[in-house]
Automatic annotation (TrEMBL):
This is Acetyltransferase (GNAT) family protein. GO terms for molecular function: acyltransferase activity, transferring groups other than amino-acyl groups. Pfam families: Acetyltransf_1 (PF00583). Keywords: Acyltransferase, Transferase. It comes from the Bacteria. Residues 17-184, 216-360 form the N-acetyltransferase domain. It comes from Plantibacter flavus. InterPro entries: Acyl_CoA_acyltransferase, GNAT_dom. PANTHER family: N-ACETYLTRANSFERASE, UPF0039 PROTEIN C11D3.02C.
Length: 360
């Protein structure tokens, strides 16, 4: 039995057999956790993330036994010169576990993070609520009330590799049909409350030119003005060019983004934004960023934007019946909004961090 760990070369066009095999492994692992194909991706959906490396570097590794791909790992980090963090993920097919393959992948990714000057590495583990045994010991972060199973293979793996649980996130799902009737009222109440100060602007995929600069600023705040518990986060630099690059990347993946911004009437600037991302061929949508800038909080903009955007989704893509979203367990305000919008917990993710010792 020969175990190999190799970097996957990213094909300039089309896909490759090894990239497809790695994607297949990733899909098997997601389905193992969530018992659904909702999170399965094709290579065509994933490849654009690897092709444009101007703002985010991304490295992909394949682990194989006698040439058959049984595991994969990726490392990602911002290209900002002063950044110190990197994110990574490793996964091994069930039949190939406990042979040191996960550790070999992790060590190689950690080595590369250090070499890139990113000594603080973050990894995540996912846990469906239905799979958490009642008598299982739990592990929580320093804030928040929810916890993940301490003895799950993924938790043991992280702990044994020296990672600390820095934050717990909730994975939530909303079945849109059950909420649709309530959304117009929520939007009307929100408009009455804040409509004299803000107006909502909707778009699909392409940010209007006049909002590009202030949306870029808002995206910078999205990197740091969020509850982070014990996670160390890097600031991100967002320029209009980077916003356009991200739009191009989503388009290349076949995704669509339905976006709403709350625009401050006096300044004409984005005070907050919220985006739903629609993967190609899927029956669900994913609620990604929602942010209200600090100066504009306390006007109910979060609930207003989200409710309005769900209505836009129901109008433009009525076949998308379920929405997923991910929130920090200690993010009380956002959790209250999501609760109001009918989101329910289906699982947790553990966000783990480790500061790597220098090799010299
Ligand atoms: C976590 C995962 C990557 C481990 O892969 P693996 O190839 O089995 O890992 P290794 O063989 O290198 O195991 C390393 C150590 O982790 C711990 N570990 C792994 N699985 C474990 C389990 N089921 N129970 C207890 N400890 C476990 C052990 O300490 C193990 O060392 P040992 O076998 O000498 O006791 C794999 O279970 C997996 O793919 N899970 C789903 C994806 C995921 O959660 N990834 C983690 C996020 S980075």
């Amino acid at each position: 039995m020969r175990i190999t760990i190799d970097e996957v070369e990213i094909p300039a066009s089309g896909s490759s057999a090894v990239f497809d095999a790695v994607q297949e492994v990733a899909n098997t692992l997601e389905a193992e956790i969530w018992s659904t194909d909702d999170f399965a991706m094709t290579s065509a959906m994933t490849l654009p993330e690897y092709r444009d490396q101007r703002f985010q570097r991304r490295v992909l590794l394949a682990a194989a036994i006698d040439g058959r791909v049984v595991g994969r790992g990726w490392l990602g980090y911002g290209t900002e010169a002063d950044a110190v963090t990197a994110s990574l993920d490793v996964g091994v097919l069930p039949e190939a576990r406990r042979r040191g393959i996960g550790t070999a992948l992790l060590l190689e990714l950690e080595r590369r993070a250090l070499a890139a000057g990113r000594p603080t590495v973050t990894a995540f583990t996912q846990h469906a609520v239905d799979d958490i045994p009642a008598d299982e010991p739990l592990l929580g972060a320093s804030v928040g009330e929810r916890a993940i199973p301490a003895n799950a293979a993924a938790s043991r793996f992280m702990l044994d590799r020296g990672y600390a649980l820095a934050q717990v996130e909730r994975t939530n799902r909303c079945d849109l049909a059950s909420m649709l009737g309530e959304l117009p009222d929520i939007v009307a109440t929100s408009t009455a409350r804040a409509g004299h100060l803000y107006r909502l602007v909707h778009w699909v995929d392409r940010t209007p030119d006049e909002l590009l600069g202030s949306l870029a600023t808002a995206r910078e705040h999205m990197a740091t003005d969020i509850p982070a518990a014990d996670l160390e986060l890097d600031p991100e630099v967002w320029t209009p060019e980077r916003v356009r690059a991200r739009e191009a990347q989503l388009a290349a993946s076949g995704d669509h983004a339905i976006v709403v911004a709350a625009v401050h009437r006096d300044s004409g600037a984005v005070a907050g934004y919220s985006e739903l991302v629609l993967g190609e061929g899927k029956e669900h949508a994913e609620q990604w960023d929602t942010l209200v800038l600090a100066d504009h909080r306390g006007h109910g903009l979060g609930l207003w934007m989200k409710a309005a955007n769900l209505l836009a989704l129901a109008d433009q893509a009525p076949e998308r019946s379920r929405i997923y979203t991910w929130n920090a367990d200690e993010n009380e305000h956002m959790l209250a909004i999501n609760d109001r919008l009918g989101f329910r917990i289906i699982g947790y993710s553990g966000e783990w961090q480790r500061r790597l010792p220098r090799s010299d």
